[in-house]
Amino acid sequence: MSEQSPIGPVDSSQVPRFAGFATFARLPRIDEVERADIAVVGVPFDTGVSYRPGARFGPAALREASRLLRPYHPGLDVSPFARAQVVDAGDIALNPFHIGSAIETLQDEAQRFAAAGTRMVTVGGDHTIALPLLRAAAAQHGPVALLHFDAHLDTWDTYFGEPYTHGTPFRRASEEGLLDTSALCHVGTRGPLYGKRDLDEDRRLGFGIVTSGDVLRRGVADTVAALSERIGDRPLYISVDIDVLDPAHAPGTGTPEAGGMTSRELLEILRGLAGHRIVGADVVELAPAYDHAEITAIAASHVAYDLVSLLSLGVSA
Ligand SMILES: N=C(N)NCCCC(=O)O
Ligand SMILES: [Zn+2]
Ligand SMILES: [Zn+2]
């Protein structure tokens, strides 16, 4: 970090939090600082979806819903924006008509952040985007451990013969050798599958599964202990599909499944990951057109805040 202390968010006791530009948590834009430790980056993209479209509007909705976030995280005992220079880097412009070129662009952009020494928390977009983000993470760190919070496996092979979709990123990532196969886990999985084979193939790729029901039965502490042990001190990428939450907690998403986790459970599990070597994270599948009273956008903004807070713990104070 530079000698100066980080530039923090706009002070909500001086400027009403409902006024002004909607950057994440009212943080400075990337062009307003010399260098950034952590960037929140919007990825408005939903060309990879199999059902309801609309995740392209996720970044804007998440930023709007983040105006009420405050600078101190009592659960982690950290002031992330004082400990690290956190910025909003705006949106990455991806070609909505060409999924291959969008994936390439995002990988290039992610590698530019990495080269600048900035870790990313991407917000919005459909789950397709995890693939180029994992490519960039693996290019920097080698194969990474992955915690994948999602109702879905997203290790399916193809849809309509197409390999790059929001249901297939982790199959491609595995084939490309981006993942440390000894440290992979889905969390919150539930809902109908195409067949038992889905689970067999997923297991063959090395994934463990903590289902939504497992979280209920085992509780948060046990779940965290199991995940922590699996990850160890490996470089860790965290991917959060907001549909991991029950539709009651996150109606604003493209492929909702009943029987999901509460936002309290998800946030508590994330907080339990403090101390791990997190190299990057995403919050995907927020589709505001199906949201009500910003329920999903608020949950997603809190998840992003927790991820930023976890990343800030890795910046020396
Ligand atoms: N990644 C998300 N949200 N959904 C994947 C669902 C794929 C399917 O339609 O079977
Ligand atoms: Zn997903
Ligand atoms: Zn999902």
Automatic annotation (TrEMBL):
<dbReference type="Pfam" id="PF00491">
    <property type="entry name" value="Arginase"/>
</dbReference>
<dbReference type="GO" id="GO:0033389">
    <property type="term" value="P:putrescine biosynthetic process from arginine, via agmatine"/>
</dbReference>
<feature type="binding site">
    <location>
        <position position="243"/>
    </location>
    <ligand>
        <name>Mn(2+)</name>
    </ligand>
</feature>
<comment type="similarity">
    <text>Belongs to the arginase family. Agmatinase subfamily.</text>
</comment>
<feature type="binding site">
    <location>
        <position position="154"/>
    </location>
    <ligand>
        <name>Mn(2+)</name>
    </ligand>
</feature>
<dbReference type="InterPro" id="IPR023696">
    <property type="entry name" value="Ureohydrolase_dom_sf"/>
</dbReference>
<dbReference type="GO" id="GO:0008783">
    <property type="term" value="F:agmatinase activity"/>
</dbReference>
<keyword id="KW-0378">Hydrolase</keyword>
<keyword id="KW-0464">Manganese</keyword>
<feature type="binding site">
    <location>
        <position position="127"/>
    </location>
    <ligand>
        <name>Mn(2+)</name>
    </ligand>
</feature>
<dbReference type="InterPro" id="IPR005925">
    <property type="entry name" value="Agmatinase-rel"/>
</dbReference>
<dbReference type="InterPro" id="IPR006035">
    <property type="entry name" value="Ureohydrolase"/>
</dbReference>
<protein>
    <submittedName>
        <fullName>Agmatinase</fullName>
    </submittedName>
</protein>
<keyword id="KW-0479">Metal-binding</keyword>
<feature type="binding site">
    <location>
        <position position="150"/>
    </location>
    <ligand>
        <name>Mn(2+)</name>
    </ligand>
</feature>
<feature type="binding site">
    <location>
        <position position="152"/>
    </location>
    <ligand>
        <name>Mn(2+)</name>
    </ligand>
</feature>
<dbReference type="InterPro" id="IPR020855">
    <property type="entry name" value="Ureohydrolase_Mn_BS"/>
</dbReference>
<dbReference type="GO" id="GO:0046872">
    <property type="term" value="F:metal ion binding"/>
</dbReference>
<feature type="binding site">
    <location>
        <position position="241"/>
    </location>
    <ligand>
        <name>Mn(2+)</name>
    </ligand>
</feature>
